[in-house]
Amino acid sequence: MRLIVQPLTDRFELCARLGLVLTSWVRRGGFDGCKIVHAVLDGSPSAHAGIEPRDVIVSFNGVPWDSVRHLAFSDKRHSEITAVVFVARYFTVTTILLRVSPEPYRSLDRIATEAADVIAAQPTPDTTPYRNPRLDEQREFLATLGRGLRRR
Q1: Paired residues of 95 in beta bridges
Q2: Could you count the other beta carbons within 10 Å of the beta carbon of residue 77?
Q3: pLDDT tens column, 76-126
Q4: Nearest-angstrom CA–CA distance, 101 and 19
Q5: How many domains are there within the chain?
Q6: In CATH, what number is assigned to the domain containing residue 59?
């Protein structure tokens, strides 16, 4: 079995074996050629690994996303894929291990139907800018400090 990404619409692609609905990355912030996770399907290897919407897939097994053509999966035992991911909620890049079973986690037809339902419910990618939560904490601290100094 191979990692196959199939187009669903002009904006979205489905990686059925990993349970990811992806959208292309618009050139921003040094992540050229990466894919943004639009949705993670329930019960999928990606959901079990903790990948969430708005995370950015940078590479699989050390190969940049735009160079990945296929990944081989074992038909007899679990396969492990190492993904480098920009985790949006923590504003950091990390390595995530995905365990993929020999059989798809659900029938491929049901996976495609679920992905189509997700896209119908949310037909446009989330374009909210990424924010570093640590900078927000620092701004809040500096504002509090500034208010304290003005009182003196």
Answers
A1: 84
A2: 9
A3: 888 899 999 999 888 889 999 999 988 888 998 999 999 999 999 999 888
A4: 12
A5: 1
A6: 2.30.42.10
- Domain hosting 106: range is 5-151
User: What does each C-alpha distance from 83 to 92, 109, 117, 122 come to in angstroms?
Assistant: 14, 25, 26, 25
Distance CA 26, CA 152 (A): 48
Tokens 């912030």 correspond to what residue?
29
Burial class of residue 72 in the structure, from the number of CB atoms within 10 Å of its CB (0-12 exposed, 13-18 middle, 19+ buried)? exposed
Backbone φ and ψ of 118, nearest 5°: -65, -45
Q: Are 129 and 81 in contact (CB under 8 A)?
A: no
Alpha carbon distances (Å) from 59 to 24, 48, 84, 100: 14, 18, 5, 16
What the block records as the tokens of 101 is 């079973």
DSSP 72: B
SS3 81: strand
d(CA 88, CA 100): 23
Q: Is the pTM of this model over 0.85?
A: no
Q: How many CB atoms lie within 10 A of CB 118?
A: 19
